[in-house]
Amino acid sequence: MRKILGKTLLLAVLTAVLLTVTAFAGEVQTALVNADALRLRSEPSTSSSTITYLSSGTQVEILEELGEWYHVSADGVSGYVYAAYITFQSGSTVTAAAPSESLAGQIGLVTGSTVNFRSAPSTDDAILKVLKADQEVTIISITDGWCKALQEGQEGYIKADYVSVNGIPLVDPRGIITGDCVNVRSAPSTDSGVVTKVYAGELVDLIALENDWYSVSYEGKSGYISADYLRVYTGEPGSGLGADIVATAQKYLGTRYVYGGASSKGFDCSGFTMYIFGLYGYSLPHSATSQWYNSGTTVAREDLQPGDLVLFCDPSRSAGKACSHVGIYVGDGDFIHASSGSNAVRISSLSESYYGGYYVGAKRVA
Known about the structure:
By secondary structure, this protein is α+β, with helices and mostly antiparallel strands. The protein is 16% helix and 41% strand.
């Protein structure tokens, strides 16, 4: 009799456990997207491809938690989203906007200087028109690297590499830090805590842009950076940057000369040019000779433009190397440089006997 009761009790316990597990397995945890144009990615990484975009308020099913990422399903499409942009709802009922399968209907901006708008998604297909930077397109869909869009009522295709939405590129969304030392904050406010710090020229992954704050990912940490200290990184030399480079360089006039220095606390000549160009996404070596050999293209003296590197060689200071000094051409025969003789960043003239006599050449980087 005891054996029968024992078996009966064991079966009852197992049945209760099975029912509990079954009930739990049948529950689906839901949450809402809390950012505009959140990328649903193929892998839990900002370097992975974008499957589609989810608009703010989209309801998702949580399939798996993976640290800073969630594996989710939205309207039958599964992928990975950054956990910081998912909000869980209290209570059993969730009211949400309909899931967004794409960015359909949103306005995108052309980011290339001249971009072909084609009749079909192939570089072999006919060009309907050529679009200029900042022209608007209305997105219809995004497939295999091509954006199907309307432009002034005409339907066509443009490479997704050359379109941004809400300030974020559709492809490889990265930003370059333009401030000296910038706080990555826990919330989009200068009153919030500091998660980490990033420095001029460093790249961060862009996730979203809201109210002049970028949400970013950097070395496994997520947070927010003010748009004042970051610009979208294109990875390509840009035209017309020379004047901007000069304007930035002139902000450091009077900064003290420090041998080996490459920060706003102090520069040597190549540290100054390396730092300034780094703010625009260009990586220059910390050596005048290396900048001469390894950076940009050679420019004749009569073709100098603002923003070009100008290089010099004083044999008494070069230790046998090709160059001993470097600066940035500002126009009208002048250049800005970190001068050891003046112990500061200053502007000098190429017509001065010293610089005219030791002039080596110029390189165009941007």
